[in-house]
Design goal:
Two copies of one chain form a homodimer. By secondary structure, chain A is of the alpha/beta class. The first copy, chain A, has one domain (3-14, 61-113, 137-329): Ribokinase (UDP-N-acetylmuramoyl-L-alanine:D-glutamate ligase), CATH 3.40.1190. The first copy, chain A, is built from 13 helices and 14 strands. In chain A, the strands form two sheets. A nine-stranded mixed beta sheet of chain A has the order 6-5-1-9-10-11-12-13-14. A five-stranded mixed beta sheet of chain A has the order 3-8-7-2-4. In chain A, strand 12 and strand 13 form a beta hairpin. Chain A binds chain B through residues 21, 49-50, 52-59, 68, 86-88, 91, 94-96, 98-99, 113, 314, 316, 318, and chain B through 21, 49-50, 52-59, 68, 86-88, 91, 94-96, 98-99, 113, 314, 316, 318.
Chain lengths: 334, 334
């Protein structure tokens, strides 16, 4: 990545995913909420891990996955997030850099270990996650590189940052830096339960501090406490400059002022693991956005990137995303 | 696993694999020997890891993979091998136990970290490996649980154990215990370069100390320094009670005294990653062997287990192996 072409800096929880296949009965026996991300402490993480089947470790984290996707598409990406100086932290650092993302947040030298997310994938390709935040609780405003944020066209923040106490301050500082430099601030609501935990603050953010909002149907409905997607759509309209709402196989709706676009989802032969679908949709959209594409094209690039990541296990792209998007977009308008 | 039905105890290097996709040009630039397993030190491991693309971490180790496969088939399996008390060691321990294998070797509390094997998978599905032995060099005869070895129908040893200095003593002690208890000792030659490093000792082992020998075509040709498979076959005949020789898609040849069997390979739609093919063949063969099946059936079970593992990334089974073998073997003689 060339510093002069930094498109997006992502700020989020830096973690390693531990993926394992499980039956629905296992989730029930463990009292897990299917499809959700639940925060757990170190002791619960140990107990669940001991009960789980053999795992596969891959670097994860929502905004980190999006930055890896953006880099795979050819965009200039950087990431800010906190790991510990342990083996999992080394794996996270290696993988995000090897994906082409600039990552220079110094690891914590004491305190809890690198965060991990235990991901149980059921036969229906749904993922259910329990996250031990570990070293992520150490992220604070001192880690925000103001020059980096000022350079990025977009600062992309994950809602999950509202969970570790001091990361919120980092978030606020980054948003202020970005706006002072005339840049855009984007937020993803991350997860309906995350919205549940921080609804009032998220509404305030959406209405006053965020330029681009990413949310899926469940998240936006939770934000406005409505049942129907259309009601959420009317509520968000006008309160945020640009809202990008995703609806899985039903496609995406993009709203900017009076402009509204509806983009279809990309067909997928067999959905293997939905982990990372939203992260990669955001990556694709942000790539198009920072390249000056139309809003419709942005949403379609997001759809193609999301389709790739749900066709295999793991939340980061495996195929040559840039080539894939070029091939698919050549057949479409704009 | 029930102690009274311990079928096989595997002894080998305990390691975590780091899998990454790479082009042939990368192997050339790194001076790697394609298709081989090369031993490297910690500094080289750091340098290669830094140059590699994003990775996926999965538990590995040749004999450990075989024991995971044996357990997946329904056999009683145990493993002896040395990790460090670090995060990768915890991953290894969790995964092998979660696979149903008894594993009680205490981790080293000082010295080098848990071993890792950097596995580069090229587009032709070949794997090229560089291994940092780490804590494996701490395995010594004191780790051999004599009661466990005496209980197992077969003690299965990997040739790779000849690399770390004291593991050889562990190997010799285990073989002696097994024979004193009237049990069988099996050896896999592991890798043609491993044979190259220890040829004289391996020949001595095969001729005097081993009841079952597992080798692929390249390994057995290297052992006897011959070019043609048939020459190696004639050489091994008579020097080892039971030799199981694998030839990838050409199937396997099993020789016991005057008895010779030829078993076809199991067809595979698309070979994705050949890592673990030999390990899972051995698992299937040993499962049949300890269940008292015919030698032909043993080889076919091995072929089915090997076919499963090369159809996906990673060296441990993902499908329900017991069910798969039952289904495939129902259509075959014996």
């Amino acid at each position: 990545m060339n510093d002069r072409t930094l498109d997006v800096v992502g700020i989020g929880n830096a973690m390693v995913d531990v993926l394992s296949q499980a039956e629905d009965a296992f989730l029930e026996a463990q009292g897990m909420t299917k499809g959700a991300m639940t925060l757990i402490d170190g002791a619960r993480a140990e107990a669940l891990y001991a009960a789980m089947g053999p795992g596969v470790e891959v670097s994860g984290g929502s905004a980190a996955n999006s930055m890896a996707g953006l880099a795979a598409l050819g965009g200039g990406a950087a990431f800010i997030g906190k790991v510990r100086n342990d083996q999992l932290g080394g794996i996270f650092r290696h993988d995000i850099r090897a994906a082409g993302v600039a990552f220079d947040t110094p690891p914590a030298t004491e305190g809890p270990p690198t965060a991990r997310c235990l991901v149980l994938v059921t036969p229906d390709a749904q993922r259910t996650m329990e996250t031990f935040l570990g070293a992520c609780v150490e992220l604070g405003p001192e880690e925000i590189d103001e020059a980096l944020v000022a350079k990025a066209k977009v600062t992309y923040l994950e809602g999950y940052l509202w969970d570790p106490p001091r990361a919120k301050e980092a978030f606020v500082k980054a948003a202020r830096c970005a706006h002072e430099a005339g840049r855009k601030v984007a937020l993803t609501l991350s997860d309906p339960f995350c919205v549940e935990r921080h609804r009032a603050e998220f509404r305030d953010l959406v209405e006053g501090h965020v330029d681009l909002l990413f949310a899926n149907e469940h998240e936006i409905c939770s934000l406005y406490q409505v049942e129907a997607f259309d009601l959420a759509l009317q509520a968000v309209r006008g309160s945020c400059d640009l809202a990008v709402l995703t609806r899985s196989e039903k496609g995406a709706v993009v709203i900017e002022g009076n402009e509204v676009h509806v983009a279809d989802a990309e067909p997928v032969k067999k959905v293997l693991d939905t982990t990372g679908a939203g992260d990669l949709f955001a990556a694709g959209f942000l790539y198009g956005y920072t390249q000056g594409r139309t809003l419709y094209a942005c949403a379609r690039i997001g759809a193609v990137a999301a389709a790739e990541v749900i066709s295999h296990y793991g939340a980061r792209p495996e195929a040559d995303l840039a080539e894939l998007v070029e091939r698919r977009m050549a057949r479409q308008p704009a």
